Amino acid sequence: MRNAQFSEPDPKTLDAIKRVLGPAGWKAPQDASRYFEDPRGRFRGQASLIALPASTAQVAEIVRLCAANSIGIVPYSGGTGVVAGQLAIDSDNAIVVSLERMNKVRHFSVDDSVIVVEAGCILENVHTAAQDHDMMFPLNMASKGSCCIGGNLATNAGGIQVLRYGNARDLCLGIEAVLPDGTVLDELSPLHKNNTGYDLRHLLIGSEGTLGIITAATLKLKPQYPDTSTAFLAIQSPAKGLAVFQEMKRHLGDTISAVELMRGLGLTLVASKFPGLRPPFAQTPDWAILLEASGALGLGDRMQEALGACFDKDLLTDAVVAQSQSQRDSLWALRENTPAANRMAGAFCNSDTSVPLSRIDDFVKDTLQAIFDIHPDVQINSYGHLGDGNIHHNVLPPNGVSKADFLSANPGIIDAVRLAINDVTQKHNGSISAEHGIGRLKTDDLETYASAARYDTLKRIKAALDPKSIMNPGALIR
Amino acid sequence: MRNAQFSEPDPKTLDAIKRVLGPAGWKAPQDASRYFEDPRGRFRGQASLIALPASTAQVAEIVRLCAANSIGIVPYSGGTGVVAGQLAIDSDNAIVVSLERMNKVRHFSVDDSVIVVEAGCILENVHTAAQDHDMMFPLNMASKGSCCIGGNLATNAGGIQVLRYGNARDLCLGIEAVLPDGTVLDELSPLHKNNTGYDLRHLLIGSEGTLGIITAATLKLKPQYPDTSTAFLAIQSPAKGLAVFQEMKRHLGDTISAVELMRGLGLTLVASKFPGLRPPFAQTPDWAILLEASGALGLGDRMQEALGACFDKDLLTDAVVAQSQSQRDSLWALRENTPAANRMAGAFCNSDTSVPLSRIDDFVKDTLQAIFDIHPDVQINSYGHLGDGNIHHNVLPPNGVSKADFLSANPGIIDAVRLAINDVTQKHNGSISAEHGIGRLKTDDLETYASAARYDTLKRIKAALDPKSIMNPGALIR
């Protein structure tokens, strides 16, 4: 039990918390198993209470009660995190605080190009609210229908448009948060420049609920563009993909919003698991890129010009440009259903690392080699955000072998593969967690791979801001 | 004396520091008065030694010696800061650490679109290095010929292209820094995604040397654009300026890189102080905007179209579009010489506040009123970065009255004006330091205007990372 510092919460304190929340504001753990589910089915959370506050004031009051009585708090957002940041897996002494009832749009300003939303607002609802005003919110990922803004910010979520618009932190102008002592930090004002001391917004974003609970945020909106062009490109290697990206940049500048890499093996896999989907090439390539740009009218012509230049330089073996929204959707469906296809095929390892762009080709070669050295017959489906240097390696059992059989015949292979990928990542000056965070899954890895200077600084900050260690105990830093 | 915790440094420790640096690596204070000069002539720095380290290892060794012997360190970059962040004004017990000898470009990568430079590299030299590779580094400000990257990052500098490219922090992918205990944090790898704990880069950027010394940085480069269009626009009010900006965005999208506001009074002032410069309008307008966009070829046509739409909506009273680079330079010279003209005219107050864009018009009205309430005859030259909500009010003596005479006849007016502007800024949910930072000039103001939650958190972080308070003592937080 890692949260040994917390004993079972005093029933009187739990009653006080329930009184703050009112009858509709909490659930008993036995009535709320969905808060304990891991999207990848590896963990099971626990808690002594599910708190469902309806306001920032209620969150603050609960945190004060927990601080005074040393009760751990696990903040819960959309529940889509894949590193168990939202799951207390070692003890049922903590309470879960889910902000699902705090899901309102507080304010919309066209002049400021911002929307102010509560943390429980579902990402897709932010997209819709922006579209209603002819604007758009660029943060986008497969889980958009269930993930919430609070979790997006707490984990500094990435997704498929980071290349152009940045990570979640880059799309947030202000936050409101309840700090570990129950005080409210209200910094929602949409300021583009504010140099009044350390940037607390950037400190809380990405802190995975270990320094406070983000309760609301001011999000940057972007103009909608009149034209979008989407191309699916067959290439021979990630190195060629990078060269295509560089050439495309010369023609399309920063209108490029996505450069997603897929492996031929992955295309075949998605098509086999989703019979409605078909790769657009006559012959399955070794690798493929999904590239999208949006901007002023006439983008289609510039895309054709750019592709012509890529063919002239022998960077592409085939290319398809979507001629309609439905063709665009079909191309994206190949990419977006990749995680599901991996799961269906028994993936037992899903990495989330990033390296400098200049290292990607060597990184992919080296990781594939390292994994095959562990077991020569596994299948590896590598895909991800080439433009961000963020590749996900999914490792599957050999063809025809079930996950259960393979894992029982190869004990320890999950850890061996994970560590091999981490070692290669470190060799190439990369990050062992590009976009998913540390949660409870990677706390050991963080301690192993972070520099002593980084890890010591993280611990000092945690101890200074959360001296009782009540905020998401066991996550990020133990 | 604010740094009372530090007594005079032990000569033996100073000798040890000198030995680390070698004979060319230090100066005695009496031989180095330039390190004590304030660009606005209000303060005078002091120190017991000027250290000029030649490497990160030397910086680390000096910091370790200072930490062990409780000697304060004032990091010094280009010396262009206007809030005395680089000047120990209360005591000569600290040592100045200037990184001017660490001015090399360590690495340039076209594939990664980055340049890795040491902290003492002058901003303009980074511009040149980028141009040599057909790229550009967007951070830009009037002091570019003398300010250095280390100071740019330590203060999270702003400047004239924040609108499109962000502040200094948004243009930095990685840093190397020496922490207050002398350990080196090496996080220079150009990663676009890295969620391995709290964002230490964003914490150190903008910390004004109070949490460590940034010794090197990995900076993001952008493509050069083939076309630039620059317009000087006569408008009736800041509100009209905001409406122009919104209309322009509909036509030019995020190709707009600068929207600078000037007052008619300011145009006349610049022309009177710089006889070579002339506002391009037949009649001096109440207000004017300098707007610039860059992007794909054909931008000039889109600019004309956008201006037509602005005239149709009655947002503009006059407009001039630069037809050549020399015309562009002349328009920018009006804006860039504004600070110098203010100084020459005896400006006794230079504010640096930001508010939400939607509040700018009321903010300007309210601040002008508040200043005239203090003294009805002063002249107010308001200018700045309209697109960022960052207006600088410069307050000048009445026409024909010298600064010295005016200030002796109106004791206390400097503080009265500063506080009046701060109060109006706070009323409009703004920041009392938009881009210049806190330094030693605004420590009282920070304590007054920051929320208790913010100020308490700043103090906790400072105490956790710099428990002996040796890093830039007296700056930011006392």
TrEMBL record, chains A, B:
* Cofactor(s) this protein requires: FAD
Matches recorded under PROSITE patterns: FAD_PCMH
A Pfam family the protein falls into: FAD_binding_4
Q: Name one GO biological process term.
A: respiratory electron transport chain
Q: Provide the GO MF annotations for this entry.
A: FAD binding; oxidoreductase activity
Tree of life domain: Bacteria
User: Keyword annotations for this protein?
Assistant: FAD, Flavoprotein, Oxidoreductase
Query: What EC numbers are recorded for this enzyme?
Result: 1.-.-.-
Give the UniProt family note.
Belongs to the FAD-binding oxidoreductase/transferase type 4 family.
Protein name in the entry: Putative FAD-linked oxidoreductase
Species per Swiss-Prot/TrEMBL record: Ascidiaceihabitans donghaensis
